[in-house]
Amino acid sequence: xxxxxxxxxxxxxxxxxxxxxxxxxxxxxxxxxxxxxxxxxxxxxxxxxxxxxxxxxxxxxxxxxxxxxxxxxxxxxxxxxxxxxxxxxxxxxxxxxxxxxxxxxxxxxxxxxxxxxxxxxxxxxxxxxxxxxxxxxxxxxxxxxxxxxxxxxxxxxxxxxxxxxxxxxxxxxxxxxxxxxxxxxxxxxxxxxxxxxxxxxxxxxxxxxxxxxxxxxxxxxxxxxxxxxxxxxxxxxxxxxxxxxxxxxxxxxxxxxxxxxxxxxxxxxxxxxxxxxxxxxxxxxxxxxxxxxxxxxxxxxxxxxxxxxxxxxxxxxxxxxxxxxxxxxxxxxxxxxxxxxxxxxxxxxxxxxxxxxxxxxxxxxxxxxxxxxxxxxxxxxxxxxxxxxxxxxxxxxxxxxxxxxxxxxxxxxxxxxxxxxxxxxxxxx
Amino acid sequence: xxxxxxxxxxxxxxxxxxxxxxxxxxxxxxxxxxxxxxxxxxxxxxxxxxxxxxxxxxxxxxxxxxxxxxxxxxxxxxxxxxxxxxxxxxxxxxxxxxxxxxxxxxxxxxxxxxxxxxxxxxxxxxxxxxxxxxxxxxxxxxxxxxxxxxxxxxxxxxxxxxxxxxxxxxxxxxxxx
Lengths: 429, 177
Description:
Number of strands of chain B: 4
Order of helices and strands of chain B: HEHEHHHHEE
Structural class of chain A: mainly beta
Largest sheet of chain B: 2 strands, antiparallel
CATH architecture of the largest domain in chain B: Orthogonal Bundle
Radius of gyration of chain B: 24 Å
Oligomer: heterodimer
Number of strands of chain A: 26
Strand content of chain A: 25-35%
Number of domains of chain B: 2
């Protein structure tokens, strides 16, 4: 693990940055001689532990089979939360509870959602995909015919262009990672390369864009550069091995790895090759960045390099001083994550976190950092660098550049403060 | 079917494919869509207005539609509440106060209003308005925003010519700038 010696505080060789960030070997050495270097408060007290029980479930056969398995009943708090537009039940956003999850893949039932007119109840037998516009042969595909095409899988994040918007607020919102950054999720998407279907239709060289449209009641539609459509776009039929969930576009959705979530059109029913953008509602009146001078940046397509610590984070109180793992997620719509640095002293010193394999382009990357919490106040931050060299900005830097007249494309560093009682709060630093 | 027949069919299919120069990358399982099928589905309208249907409407006619179908969500004369405000806010995009983004102050193309209202509104029964009703309600929203006059008629010819106040307010994003 890379260590910036200039940022090392203290004399302990295991220290990698200020306020208790330590080398991962501390985990491996716990319980061996190295444990001697861990303050006694960090070690579990055997006297306090409950005596081992022979529990009832060890004595009776368990329950039977079910057709589609569900999480343990003890996990009933691991759920999405959502907000809806006034007078609607299905227009709004639901958020992934990242503080209660680990790894890089989001379970299908917890993938974030953004609907503009609820979730349509689509019969896969009657659903059609039309490809037309500036093409030689306009084509109609059924789900059955698409399922006969060669398929590919991509592990990709999808992030709403509005994710992280609370960071534009003047005061830090007293909420956690789910409310602030829950509109990003990551899945293995499997489907047919859009380029193959477009090539079959025979795209006119004049066509520089496509319009993608959904079969929901809002007919959600976005313009997408032809270059992206021909590059890595998929008509996704499967999500983490099963058919795409209704909330995520059943029976088919567009997947544009790395691009603004809104463009990954769900319930995909139509692709139209066009010379220029259609200028739909969602690429003009929404998903544009209004700058301090009143001008708005349009077609902000890939999501920027970003990271957030998911554990500890607000709602997860730390019970006692000792050795902890700081864990979080990093991603970039421009490529792979090269580095994530973590700070426990509000950005004064940083240490490189371990990146868990696989580290894939345009996918969530899990990072981990060992932390010896001494029981005192701490300010935790993470900072991602992607393989284009882009470094995630501080909130101050982001606002200096973009102002606060937008809610879109917030990718600033998020800061959690830890109190001496172990409470975790969202703060600005 | 015998192997020989399958082979024959496969060979003639191959010949056919090369004869019409169809892309050989995929299995070519799409069915060719007829112009009628496309017309029924192709509801998107770009800034050039191509594809706008026959029909027309005036602000006055639009007010009638608005009072019946839109006011519950968008308030009196597009003032908003409980849902999006449609009218006002011109001049609020720069400055220190929060921007008031409405159709009149922010939307760059009038064609987008037609496209969006026809496909997505009214919320509880989208795609239920006639083309005349859509043109009329677009005319009414534009008139409330001072973009067209009370007696102007909106149709396939006039709509793409409407210049929205924030037409030049957008810059294509480039990373790092």
